């Protein structure tokens, strides 16, 4: 009797294949939008959730990738954590949680601003229902990564596209 075993390899660990990941062919990475896990998540909790999926909060390196990430997002969920956070004394000292180069930015006008105790970036996914809202879709803003700040309740994880190895047992 033969059976087939599927293994997924990501970041050197064997992981169970979870549905809903979307591959962006230009990067060979896969991405997943999370909401209601179980409710809002501060920045560090969202990053830890992604790490448990052999991933990190999304790093974005081009306009095309920024647009791809935006397409994953659900209408009505406007503020989404991305994996960019302040690492030094200045708000200009930003770094991706996955360690990749900070080689692309899509900041809104006037951003990044040093207005919080723990600066982390979020992306505005879709227009806010408030017509007087000044935030612009697809642009990045600085939010407070501190656990007490509850304005961002969704996030996107990114990981290397997992390979499927088929073995006969």
From TrEMBL:
InterPro entries cross-referenced by the UniProt entry: C-type_lectin-like, C-type_lectin-like/link_sf, C-type_lectin/snaclec_domain, CTDL_fold
CDD domains membership: CLECT (cd00037)
Residue intervals of the C-type lectin domain: 31-140
SMART domains named in the record: CLECT
Domain of life: Eukaryota
Pfam family, one: Lectin_C
Name listed for the protein in its UniProt record: C-type lectin domain-containing protein
Species name: Ancylostoma ceylanicum
